[in-house]
Amino acid sequence: MRRLYALGLLIFSLSSPAFAQINSTSITDNADAKAISAEIFGPKRQTDLAFGAFQRGYYLTALSLALDRAGKNNSAAAAQTLIATIYANGLGVAENMALASSWYAIAAKNGDVNATFQLALLYQNGRGVPRDRKRGAELFAQAAKMGSPEAKYNLALLHVEGIYATPSYSEAARLMKEAAAAGLAEAHYNYGIMLSEGAGVAPDAKAGANEIKIAAQMGLSEAQVEYATILYLGKGINRNLARAVFWYRQAANAGNPVAQNRLAKLIAAGEGVKLDLQTAAMWRSLARRQGLVDPGLDRLLVSITPEDQARADQRARFWPGVVQSKTSAPPLAPANAGDAMGKAMLNMDKLLEPQKIVPPKTTPIAPSGSPAK
């Protein structure tokens, strides 16, 4: 079974930093507003004020309010988690992972699910604490029992890995399904792969394709590439070359080199889209910038004129989202072989030698939820 796509998720959605801090009294002094709020919503807790300041980018004010609340019983765990988040992300203060891990540990002990999950990430990646993947797995399990979709997702990956959690594809599929039901795009994608390949569940290509489609619609480029491949092959659903082109283009526009390469091949072959060697060459150039070189695509473009090639290179240089500096462009490297996904393009190479392509490996950005080996 192919390796599942792993990506960790930060719990808090951080707003843009503000350039000034406000005094906490400016939040609390409006008596009329407080009275109306209390009448409608009930008494306002100080932790809510801290989160309000945090969401507006007033991080020092949020820290002050949260610290004041952290030692009290009512909502202390939420305040403790907020303090940890501020230090973990260096918001208004210097980043301090050791201090962040201490606050996450306190909040986790007091039953905060977000803190438990974030502490698991720290142990998985060795940030602020000694790396201890076994302890991280235990914390993921705790947070999963408390209902955290992100924890369920990461625990599922650990069950697939089978080192720090019991090897069990069936348990992984159960957790992945629950995480998908909670709306995690990565979980939809991975659960779709498991359904397609019958890993831990009865194989169901149609249901698998639908899960992958959901992840694609949520903007996950890996899922967009996979769903485009499913449409190209007609795997579990009706074959649709035009829609395959659409989803490859979505992922290509997001900068996915595998999508850029495959879109170039479809355009160069005129499959599902009008044949256009110049545009195909542009996508080839963009994929090459990220290290993906495909001799099969080169053969499809062997007849391109020097003028069209020059124009394609110029278009690629000014294409949105591509770094313009030559020194920052990654070196060209041959594509690796062995990925099952690469077989999707074999039908396009009937007269050419088969070529398998694997997407470049991605490294999770700490603090990520991806269990690292």
Topology, pairings included?
Elements: H1 25-28, H2 31-41, H3 46-55, H4 59-70, H5 76-89, H6 97-109, H7 113-125, H8 133-145, H9 149-161, H10 169-181, H11 185-197, H12 205-217, H13 221-233, H14 241-253, H15 257-269, H16 277-289, H17 295-300, H18 306-317
Helix pairs in contact: 3-4, 4-5, 5-6, 6-7, 7-8, 8-9, 9-10, 10-11, 11-12, 12-13, 13-14, 14-15, 15-16, 16-18
Region (Disordered): 353-373
Pfam families: Sel1
InterPro entries: Sel1-like, Sel1_AlgK, TPR-like_helical_dom_sf
Can you characterise this structure?
The protein has 373 residues and is mainly α. It has a domain at 48-147: Tetratricopeptide repeat domain (Serine Threonine Protein Phosphatase 5, Tetratricopeptide repeat), CATH 1.25.40. The chain has helices at 25-28, 31-41, 46-55, 59-70, 76-89, 97-109, 113-125, 133-145, 149-161, 169-181, 185-197, 205-217, 221-233, 241-253, 257-269, 277-289, 295-300, 306-317. α5 runs antiparallel to α6. The longest helix is centred in the N-terminal third of the chain and has 14 residues, at 76-89. The chain is globular.
For the structure shown, list the relevant keywords.
373 residues; Serine Threonine Protein Phosphatase 5, Tetratricopeptide repeat; FOG: TPR repeat, SEL1 subfamily; Sel1-like
